Structure prediction request, 721 residues.
Amino acid sequence: MRSPLRAPWKIAAVLTAGLLAVAGCGSGGDDGSADGVVQLSLWTGFTGPDRPAYESLVKQFNDTHPKIKVTMDVQPWDAIGQKLPGAWATGQGPDLATPNFDPGVLFTYAKTNSLLPLDEAAGDGDGKLNASLFPKAVTTAFTIDGKLYAAPANMATLVLYYNKAMLTEAGVSEPKTGDDLVAAAKKLTKMNGGKVTQYGISLADHATIQMWPILQWMNGGDIVDAKGCATVAEPASVQALQTWADLVAKDKVSPVGQTGADADTLFSAKKAAMEINGPWAAAGFKSAGIDLGIAAVPVGAGGPVTLASTVPLAIGKSTKHKAQALEFLAWWTGKTAQAAFSDASGFPPVRTDVTPTNPIVAPFAAQLPTARLYLPGLPTSAKIDTDVYVPLIGKITRGEPVGPAAQSAAEAINKITGCKP
Amino acid sequence: MTTATIPPATTRRRQRFNSAYLYVAPSLLLIGVFIAEPILRSGWMSLHDWTVGEDTHAWVGLGNYTELFGDERFRNALGVTGLYTVVVTAGQVLGGLALALWLRRTTWLTALLRSAFFFPTVASFAVVGVVWKFLLDPQVGLINGWLGEVGVTGPSWLADTGLALPTVMAVGIWKGVGFSMIVLLAALQGVPVPLMEAATLDGANRWQRLRAVTLPEIRPALLFTTVISTVTSLQLFDLVYVMTGGGPLFHTESIVTYLYQRGFVEFRLGYASAIAWVLFLLILAVSLIQLRIARSDDDQ
Prediction:
């Protein structure tokens, strides 16, 4: 007997099965071990010209560790920023990752309980994480409430890149002092009937590794002190901001409101004569056909200084292969790997006991002792950056008076950090 | 035979009862899991200080909503979204009407133009945003390149605080005007020809015919396009995210991009849920007012 119920039941059954299959897909895919080889997934944001150096380092690890296979998935930083927090907070995602190029984000991940503390792997000798040999600024930035949450995937300092041909043409020599830099930026800016045809310097103010703090530090100014109290409105700082805001807003030495990528494009397209940037940019600039000059950041009243940048490499708390992930970090920051990486990439090594042999590393490594991190050790650094510092630079380069803008920025920072001046 | 003794009425009732539920079950399941449950849960989250991954979530009652009330960035986002909605809705509906009236008759040329105007509707907001961002780039973009050839120095469309929002609005109108045009074109075909002829015989000129005959006849379509355009504009996200990221200096930050910032960058899901609920109530209120206005017009 044919029941009239059968057809709807069938439809329902098929639909339910379909839905379950769809739902099942989401949790599919196991990263476990096959043939005794542990598979580790690693997400990084190294999309730049420095990418092959990281890839060869991963390959070297895989070749020397037959029981572990690390697969590096390289994606743009903002893609990682969108996917990783949710993935790690809900116990999914890769075993290891570089969450951002800014160490400040570690606080966010620590707050969502997403990171594995690395202290148990710390120690001396091979196979251990030699945290005591990392530059102090690095360990400070990666330590939260006394626990180390990341190892440095790299370490870099920002230098002054310049287009030799443009400087020669304008009769400008390599800037050595802060005043030289100001004069060079003005002289290298060319106008034609109100339109800028060549910018003196390419400055970015958002979506970038910050270069503006260097301009403040050069003059002896700062943004926040170690206690989290704002120093951005102090005279040395305001004076530096005033100088550079005027240069941008009035003398038009740089376009306003550039992202880091915009700034690089401008310099690569030979539309700007100078740019402050890190070692990752060198290869791209050279392949753009620029006769590239590399100099230390000019020295101002505040003494020699530049910005240090270090990308944190962290382990997701829910990884199933903790021991192997820790082994990978120890190897990555070990002596052999760092010597090889520095030679291949032009980055300074992340350890103080490795001497680089690649001559291109010299200008970056030479600045390490005086390099400073941007808003280090502040749990609220990401908020200060997006809500206060980036808008401050945006306002003053668009002609807002520097004094009051810096004053209200200082108040906003103190409100965020809870500092009572 | 024993089977023949089952009362047929029972069978029929049971069949109807069961199959009705079965037919709606898949839809109900989808709506329940993907729409109703998340909405209710976000309401619950909005009453907590809820950060992803934290073990406990402190109950704050209406605390997130009161914080929102004093939040300058939220008020800014509200203003940006409101202005965008008014300008873009007006632009899409009026522009769509003008295009529909212009391209009313079907010839090969109007068919071509209709397709051209409708084309942006088919593309996604993200794609449109990327393309326009590239076109508008002050250094390498086509638009400033053209302007430069005729001797005009093009501005930085998306980095200038005064120009960024109008630029995004223009792209928003361009993107949606084709949809309004198609809906209104369809409505225009439904305007009774005898009515038009009668008005012409009565000596009504073109403007009078438009006001007294065409517009009242296509009012439902006008209302429909206005509501759809308003609701999509209030949810502005993709264009801003791709073109400006909310900048320069928050001048294009919409409610949803701000929600994204708080919820999925800073992971304050409780606060972000409160923003979502305010937006939901706002859309509900605006839609109700628009429907109410339309109904009171009908009563006259």
About this structure: Chain A is about 40% helix and 15% strand. Residues 121 and 323 of chain A are 9 Å apart (CA to CA). The domain at 38-156+310-367 of chain A is CATH 3.40.190.10 (D-Maltodextrin-Binding Protein; domain 2). Chain A has two domains: 38-156+310-367, 159-308+377-417.
